[in-house]
Amino acid sequence: MHVKKLPFTGQLIYASGMLGLVILMNMIGCTVVYFYDPLSNSNIPYLLPRVTVLGIFSFISLIAASGRIWDIVTDPVVAFARRRRSKNPVVGERLSCAGVFSPFCSQAF
Fold it and tell me: What Å distances lie between residue 98 and 34, 50, 84, 93, 103, CA to CA?
C-alpha cells in the first residue's frame, strides 16, 4: 500500500490545530506552578511543602514531570499495539492495550 507524503505546509496546517490547546495548557501549567510554589518575595502562602529532591527539583515539578514519565512508559506500548493487526475489525487494534491499562486509569479517578 502506497501512502502519499503530506507536504511540509500541510504538516504545519495539520499541527496548528492543537496550537490553541497547547497554549492554554501551558498557561494553566505556569499558573499552577506560580500559585503552588510562589516566589519567596511574594505575599502568597506556600500550599505545598518546601522540599527539594536532589537539591534542584521542587515538589510541584516532580508532580508535573510524573505525567511525562508515564507517557514515556506507555507510548511504546501503544505503538506496539498499533503495529498489531486485529483479526476482528469490530474490536479494533488498540483494545488489548486499553484492556491492560483500564484498571490503572480507573484507579486515578
Answer: 35, 37, 14, 10, 9
Q: Is the pTM of this model over 0.85?
A: no
* pLDDT tens profile 3-37: 788 899 988 888 888 888 888 888 888 788 777 77
Cα–Cα distance for residue pair 25/21, rounded to 1 Å: 6
Q: Counting beta carbons within 10 angstroms of the beta carbon of residue 22, is it exposed (0 to 12), middle (13 to 18) or buried (19 or more)?
A: exposed
Half-sphere exposure of 99 (CA within 13 A, CB side): 7
Cα distance between residue 30 and residue 49, in whole Å: 18
How far apart CA 31 and CA 76 sit, in angstroms, is 31
Instruction: Provide the H-helix boundaries in the chain.
Output: 8-15, 19-36, 59-83, 95-108
Distances (CA, A) of 63 to 16, 59, 69, 102: 28, 6, 10, 21
